[in-house]
């Protein structure tokens, strides 16, 4: 199956996908800041450049997109019907990178929290934030 867009349109569409300051990331940042937590953003000296670093609690937070990080059993993770092999290889490489990053951070003594994009939808947001605060403080 071929792509439904020409190369220029596809390139433009892909260039609009952000890696920093995404809507889910900003939601979590605003919530934590309102609760009095202070953090650093995208610390380059840590493996994987975590989205949020709470140095006081020796905790890092990754806010993962369900599609890009292959969230199993999630309605937002759907393998594209075009170039399926390529997409699966890319997503599986992302999953491997995530696992390696988590292992490296834990080896350095950091606590790792992963928040999935689907957990930040309106109906799931409150329980997700409650669990987040618990995980940080424990």
From TrEMBL:
Q: Which family does it belong to?
A: Belongs to the vsr family.
Annotated signal sequence is none
Q: Name one GO molecular function term.
A: endonuclease activity
- Do the record's keywords include NAD? no
Task: Give the Enzyme Commission number.
Answer: 3.1.-.-
**What function is annotated for this protein?**
May nick specific sequences that contain T:G mispairs resulting from m5C-deamination.
Gene Ontology biological-process annotations: mismatch repair
Instruction: Give the enzyme's main class according to its UniProt record, as a single word.
Output: hydrolase
* Keyword set includes Cell wall biogenesis/degradation: no
Which organism encodes this protein?
A: Chitinophaga ginsengisegetis
- Name of the protein this chain belongs to: Very short patch repair endonuclease
Q: Which UniProt keywords apply?
A: DNA damage, DNA repair, Endonuclease, Hydrolase, Nuclease
InterPro entries this protein is in?
DNA_mismatch_endonuc_vsr (IPR004603), Restrct_endonuc-II-like (IPR011335)
